[in-house]
TrEMBL record:
It is a peripheral membrane protein. Pfam families: FAD_binding_2, Succ_DH_flav_C. Its cofactor is FAD. It is found in: Cell membrane. It comes from Flavobacterium saliperosum. GO terms for cellular component: plasma membrane. The lineage of its organism: Bacteria, Pseudomonadati, Bacteroidota, Flavobacteriia, Flavobacteriales. Residues 533-668 form the Fumarate reductase/succinate dehydrogenase flavoprotein-like C-terminal domain. This is succinate dehydrogenase. Belongs to the FAD-dependent oxidoreductase 2 family. FRD/SDH subfamily. GO terms for biological process: anaerobic respiration. Keywords: Cell membrane, Electron transport, FAD, Flavoprotein, Membrane, Oxidoreductase, Transport. The active site is at R337.
C-alpha cells in the first residue's frame, strides 16, 4: 500500500487557499439527497455536524453520552490557541506554525500545521459570534495568556472552563440544526463497526445503549470524531467512557493507524493517591503562567515532607530547586509538556519527590511568588503605594481567584488542601494521544468516504501537542476543513441515491457485532473487565509510559499478547445484551484497548529514537534531552491490520518533508 497524503503543490502559505479553490462542490439543491454520519459530538464532531447540517446535508450524529454536552471536550480547561497577536508580542500565523512544528519535535506534516495556523483566527471569530464568553482585558479586547512551548500570549480562554464554553457554542449550533431537522441526533448510541460497500464507507452498525438494539445506519460518507485513546493506560485524565473503539473498528476494516506510540503525558495532574483510583484529574496548564514548579534541594527535606514532619511552606527559598527555571531559563515553567513531564520524573526518580504515595512521586506548583507580585500591582493600581504585607497577600489571592478560581476550588475539593496557602501537588499523567487514524490532507482515511477529525486522527501535532492546540484542531477540522473536503468527495455521490441497509455487507457487519457480544456474554469467566483493564494499564504505564527501552517494550508486547488470551478465556460479563449493560459496553472497549496497547508497544519498539512524547531511554544526550534520528525516522509510521494476531501488522511509512522550516534540535534553554 502506497500512502498518498494528497498535499497540494505550490508555496506552503498558499496551499490551502489554492486547494479550496479547486475542490469540487455540491450544489445546494443536491445536498438534501446526501446522507452523512458523524460519530462523536465533541468539538470536532459537533462543529462538523453543525456545519454540514447548515450546508443542507442530511446528518446523523451519534454519541454514547446522554447529550453532546457531556463529550470529553468539556473537560479542557486552559484555552484555545489562535494567531491574532492581540498582545502585540510578535505572534503571527508563521510563529504559530513554527511553534507547533517545533513543539511536535519535527514529526508533523508542514502543510497540515500551516493550515491549522491559518484558520486559527477564524475559530475565535466563529466562537465569539456564538456567544462564547472569552475572558476580556480592561479595554474590552479578548485577553490572552501563555501556554507551554511558546514565548507569546496567544491562548484565548474562559476562566478554567474553556472546553465547556466552546462545546456549548458548538452544541448551540448543532441544536439549531437538530431543531431544523437537518441533523438527527442519536444519544446513548455507540458505533461498533463500519460498513463498506465496494470499498467505500457506506454506514455503521450502532448499539442503542439503553435497549441493547443493534441498528444499521447508512450514509454516503462517515466522519469519525471520537477522541483519543489515553484510557488504554486505565489511569488517565480522560473521561471514564473515552475509548478507541470507533477508530479501532475502522482500522480493522482497512484504515491505517498512525504513530500509536505518541502519547502525551501532562505535567500538571493531581498525583495518584491510591490503588483503587480509576481516574486522574488534570490541573490546567494555564496555571504554569502563575505557578513555579519546585522540589526541595535536599533529599532529607523531601523525606521529611513525605513523612509529614515538614510542610512545603517551611522550606526556605534558597532550599528550593526550581528545576525547570534552572534547566530551561529561556522558557522556564512554560516548557512544552513532554519536557516538563520528563523533568519531574527525573527529580522524583532521584529521590526528591514530595507525595506520600506508593511511588513518592509528586512535585510542587507554588503560587506564592505570583500572589506577592500581583498583590503589589493591584495595590499600586488602587493608589496604595505602600501596602502592608497582609494587603499585598489579600489582593494577590483575589487576583488568582478571578483568574483561576474554579481550578483552585476543584483542587481543594479533591485534596482537602488550600492551594492559596499551600503549594499544589502535581505529577505527570496520561492525557492526550497524538497518534490516531492516518488521514490525508483532506482528513480522509485509507477507506474512501471515511473521514477522521480531531484527536481521533494523527495529523497535526507530531510527537507532542502544545497546550491549547487540541481545541484549535478539533474546531478547525469541523468548522473550516471538513465542509470543503467532504463536499469534494460527495460531489461524485449525487446520483447514488439512498443506500439500503439490507445489503449483504450490512448483514455481515451486524452479524459480526452480534457474534462478538454473544461470545462475551456466554464466556463464563471469573474476572471482571476492570481486572484486565487495570493489568493492561500497569503494563502500559510501566513499560510503554514516560520512559521506554527495548527490553521492556519487548516484554510488554509478550505480556499484552498473553493478557489478550487470558481476557478472552476468563473475562466475566454479567447481564444480557438487550438491556442497559455498562459491563458489556466496557468489555467491548477493553478488547480494543488490549489490541491497541500491543500495537503501541510495537510502534515504540521500531522507532529507535526519542522525540516528543516518545522517549526511548537509549536515545538521550548527556543532559537527558531527546535524541532524534532524522535520517532514519523522519516519517509517519502507519500500521495496516493483518488479522487477529496484532504482531503481524504491517508498517507503512509516509516520509515527512520540510520546505519552510529548518529541522534542528529542540532547545528551550
Amino acid at each position: 500500500m502506497k500512502l498518498d497524503s494528497k498535499i497540494p503543490e505550490g508555496p506552503l502559505a498558499q496551499k490551502w487557499t489554492n486547494h479550496k479553490n479547486h475542490l469540487k462542490l455540491v450544489a445546494p439543491n443536491n445536498r438534501p439527497k446526501i446522507d452523512i454520519i458523524v460519530v462523536g459530538t465533541g468539538l470536532a464532531g459537533a462543529s462538523a455536524a453543525a456545519s454540514l447540517g447548515e450546508m443542507g446535508y442530511n446528518v446523523k450524529a451519534f454519541c454514547f453520552q446522554d447529550s453532546p454536552r457531556r463529550a470529553h471536550s468539556i473537560a479542557a480547561q486552559g484555552g484555545v490557541n489562535a494567531a491574532k497577536n492581540y498582545q502585540n508580542d510578535g505572534d503571527s500565523v508563521y510563529r504559530l506554525f513554527y511553534d507547533t512544528i517545533k513543539g511536535g519535535d519535527y514529526r508533523a506534516r508542514e502543510a497540515n500545521v500551516h493550515r491549522l495556523a491559518e484558520v486559527s483566527g477564524n475559530i475565535i471569530d466563529q466562537c465569539v459570534a456564538q456567544g462564547v464568553p472569552f475572558a476580556r482585558e480592561y479595554g474590552g479586547m479578548l485577553d490572552n495568556r501563555s501556554f507551554g512551548g511558546t514565548q507569546v500570549q496567544r491562548t484565548f480562554y474562559a476562566a478554567g472552563q474553556t472546553g465547556q464554553q466552546l462545546l456549548l457554542g458548538a452544541y448551540s449550533a448543532l441544536s439549531r440544526q437538530i431543531g431544523l431537522g437537518r441533523v438527527k441526533m442519536y444519544n446513548r448510541h455507540e458505533m461498533l463497526d463500519i460498513v463498506k460497500i465496494d470499498g467505500k464507507a457506506r454506514g455503521i452498525i450502532a448499539r442503542d445503549l439503553i435497549t441493547g438494539e443493534i441498528q444499521r445506519h447508512s450514509a454516503h460518507a462517515v466522519i469519525i470524531a471520537t477522541g483519543g485513546y489515553g484510557n488504554v493506560y486505565f489511569l488517565s485524565t480522560n473521561a471514564m467512557g473515552s475509548n478507541v473503539t470507533a477508530g479501532w473498528k475502522i482500522h480493522k476494516q482497512g484504515a491505517l493507524f498512525a504513530n500509536p506510540c505518541y502519547v502525551q503525558i501532562h505535567p500538571t495532574c493531581i498525583p495518584v493517591h491510591g490503588t483503587n483510583q480509576s481516574k486522574l484529574t488534570l490541573m490546567s496548564e494555564s496555571l504554569r503562567n502563575s505557578g513555579r514548579i519546585w522540589v526541595p534541594k535536599k533529599k532529607e527535606d523531601a523525606e521529611a515532607i513525605r513523612a509529614g514532619k515538614l510542610k512545603p511552606t517551611q522550606i526556605a527559598e534558597e532550599d528550593r530547586d526550581y528545576y525547570l527555571e534552572r534547566r530551561y531559563p529561556a522558557f522556564g515553567n512554560l516548557v512544552p509538556r513532554d519536557v516538563a513531564s520528563r523533568a519531574a520524573k527525573e527529580r522524583c526518580d532521584a529521590g526528591y519527590g514530595i507525595e506520600a504515595n506508593d511511588t513518592n512521586e509528586g512535585v510542587y506548583l507554588d503560587f506564592s511568588t505570583e500572589i506577592q507580585n500581583k498583590g503589589k500591582q493591584a495595590a499600586y493600581a488602587k493608589g496604595n503605594h505602600n501596602p502592608s504585607a497582609e494587603e499585598i497577600t489579600a489582593l494577590g489571592k483575589q487576583w488568582l481567584e478571578e483568574k483561576y478560581g474554579n481550578l483552585f476550588t476543584m483542587y481543594q475539593k479533591i485534596t482537602d488542601e488550600n492551594p492559596y496557602e499551600t503549594p499544589m501537588k502535581i505529577y505527570p499523567a496520561v492525557h492526550y494521544t497524538m497518534g490516531g487514524v492516518w488521514v490525508d490532507y483532506n482528513l480522509q482515511s485509507t477507506i474512501p468516504g471515511c473521514f477522521v477529525a480531531g484527536e481521533a486522527n494523527f495529523s497535526d501535532h507530531g510527537a507532542n501537542r502544545l497546550g491549547a492546540s487540541a481545541l484549535m484542531q478539533g474546531l478547525a477540522d469541523g468548522y473550516f476543513v471538513l465542509p470543503y473536503t467532504v463536499s469534494n468527495y460527495l460531489a461524485d455521490e449525487i446520483r447514488t441515491g439512498k443506500i439500503p441497509t439490507d445489503s449483504p455487507e450490512f448483514l455481515e457487519a451486524e452479524a459480526r457485532v452480534k457474534d462478538t457480544i454473544t461470545k462475551f456474554l456466554n464466556n463464563n469467566g471469573t474476572k471482571s473487565v476492570d481486572y484486565f483493564h487495570k493489568k493492561l494499564g500497569l503494563i502500559m504505564w510501566n513499560k510503554v509510559g514516560m520512559g521506554r527501552n527495548e527490553a521492556q517494550l519487548k516484554e510488554a508486547i509478550t505480556e499484552i499478547a498473553q493478557l489478550k488470551e487470558d481476557f478472552y478465556n476468563d473475562v466475566y460479563v454479567p447481564g444480557s445484551a438487550d438491556e442497559f449493560n455498562t459491563e458489556l459496553e466496557k468489555v467491548l472497549r477493553v478488547a480494543d484497548f488490549i489490541e491497541l496497547g500491543q500495537l503501541m508497544a510495537m510502534d515504540a519498539l521500531q522507532r529507535k529514537e526519542s522525540c516528543g512524547g516518545h522517549f526511548r531511554e537509549e536515545y538521550q544526550d548527556a543532559e537527558g534531552e531527546t535524541l532524534r534520528d532524522d535520517e532514519n525516522f523522519k516519517f509517519v509510521g502507519a500500521w495496516e491490520y493483518k488479522g487477529d494476531d496484532i504482531s503481524k501488522e504491517e508498517l507503512h511509512k509516509e516520509e515527512l518533508k520540510y520546505e519552510e522550516i529548518k529541522i534542528a534540535a529542540r532547545n528551550y534553554k
